[in-house]
Amino acid sequence: MLRTAFILSILIPGFYAAMRSRYWALLMYLWFALFRPQDWIWIDITNLRLSLVLGLLLLVPAIVAGRFPNVSHPLSIGMILFLVSAILSQFTAVRPDLGWTWIDFVFRLFITCMLLVTLASDGPRLYGIIAVISCSLGFHASKAGLAYAVGGGTRFADGLSGAFIDNNGYALGTVMIVPLLLVTAQNIELVYTGKWLPYLRAGCYAAIPLCVFAIIGTYSRGGFVALASAILTFVLLQRRRVPAVIALCSVLTLAALFVPVPQSYLDRLETIRTYDEIGEDSAMSRPHFWRVGLQMGLTHPLGVGLRQYEQAYDEFDTTFGRYGKHRAVHSAHVQVFAELGFFGAIVWVGLFAYAVVACLRIRQRSFDPRLSPLRRRFLFTASIGLLTSMAGFVTGGAFLALALNDITWLTFALVAALERLSVQVVETETVPVRAPAVATPLAFRVVGTFAPQRMGRP
After folding, report:
1. How many angstroms separate the CA atoms of 149 and 77, rounded?
2. What is the rounded distance in angstroms from the CA atom of residue 414 to the CA atom of residue 116?
3. CB under 8 Å to 249, separation ≥6 — which residues?
4. What are phi and psi of 305, to 5 degrees?
5. What is the pLDDT along the chain (458 residues), one digit of tens a residue?
6. Bridge partners of 166?
7. Distance between CA atoms of residues 140 and 158, nearest Å
8. Closest Cα partner for 417 from 76, 113, 79, 120?
9. What is the DSSP letter of 14?
10. Model pTM score
């Protein structure tokens, strides 16, 4: 009953706001897609097709009002080219009917991403989108992390519905949103300066270690590698790297002393290095799956069709079923090459390459002394957070076939929106030069209080 009341307290005012504002329609659509309330409450609301309704509330009025999806940013162009590669792969697809189903999914996802670029027109709006994305999945991960801590090392064999349905996907998705949770905690003043601000900030900060506990609780080796890569990236991108390294070592030392880490989890991590000695099929089979994927792409330069590696696996399996039938590729990067061929793989690499360069440029712009401290902090922390999230995916995605997960493509959209915003604020929203102080008679002096300056349009 409490779950239902909680969900209705968001759905009812959220739908009302979505009918009045395209931005709120976007927030509700993202929340519904990532939080997945239909899987969390006890009553069945799937027949209401709320996701479709929210999508229509987002898209139709936006187009009528002239707020079209952004198609001019290089990352938007990359999404369009990725969709084109998926359509081209249909000419050599193993299951064209299955391919069109996933092309429809990708089309709707990309429309949402490109609308995000359009609607995230200022700092508070972009911050709100980051907060909704991170907190939607972070809520479930924090709850799982709390169960892990209270239970003394509870193991999670399953994840959430959708892209992160198994423990490995759940771990990788959590790694990707942890940096965004940190961005949310660091920049709350962009949208709220009331008396609850310290508590909201503390809640976001507290969710971060709980999410790390959840990653440990999945026993996912790919999740551990992704987390390590994300942490290293985050530390290296700090302005003062030495204090960051010292702080990291201190945190790791405290964690080793006080965090309950079962020996079985440490034994599982040990198999990353010794899998060939113990003959573990799970790890030994993955290089074979990758070789099969590479052979698919070489044999079919346009690919075997979107999400059709499993359908084509038996034809290219040289072990004659040693690892089973219709197996998954276990790598997002090989997945793209196998299913979309050379063109799709080039677009995939190009998207990440441009996103990384864009984030580094945004980070550099955040040092501009003409910007207010609030703006500098948002640009700096958001660029680092997005880079850290991508680093976690690029590493962890090498072991999971999650090329079409929502968060990766939303991250590209966030980078595009942040890049546009960084150019805007550097060019038009600089701190004005102060005029020389003029003596004012005491009788005319007024002592006032001023709220922190917000990032927005001029």
Report:
1. 44
2. 8
3. none
4. 110, 145
5. 788 888 889 999 999 999 999 999 999 999 999 998 888 887 777 787 888 899 999 999 999 988 999 999 999 999 999 999 999 999 999 999 999 999 999 999 999 999 999 999 999 999 999 999 999 999 999 999 998 888 777 777 777 777 788 888 999 999 999 999 999 999 999 998 889 999 999 999 999 999 999 999 888 888 999 999 999 999 999 888 788 888 878 877 877 777 777 777 777 777 766 555 445 566 678 899 999 999 999 999 999 999 999 999 999 998 888 888 989 999 999 999 999 999 999 999 999 999 999 999 999 999 998 899 999 999 999 999 999 999 999 999 999 999 999 999 999 999 999 999 999 988 876 545 444 444 434 333 333 333 344 444 43
6. 158
7. 12
8. 120
9. H
10. 0.89
How many whole angstroms separate alpha carbon 452 and alpha carbon 244?
27
Q: Are 304 and 296 in contact (CB under 8 A)?
A: yes
Tokens of 275: 């899998």
Q: State CA 11 to chain mean position distance.
A: 23
Q: State phi, psi for 257 to the nearest 5 degrees.
A: -85, -35
As a whole number of angstroms, the distance between CA 329 and CA 287 comes to 9
Element spanning 448, H or E: none
In angstroms, the Cα distances linking 303 to 99, 298, 314, 325, 432 are 11, 8, 16, 20, 55
- The structure tokens listed for 449 are 């209080």
What single-letter amino acid sits at 136?
Answer: S
How far is residue 48's CA from residue 10's CA, in Å, rounded to a whole number?
A: 16
Q: Which token pair is 445?
A: 């002096």
CA pseudo-torsion sign 71, 74, 77, 82: negative
Structure tokens at 451: 């709220």
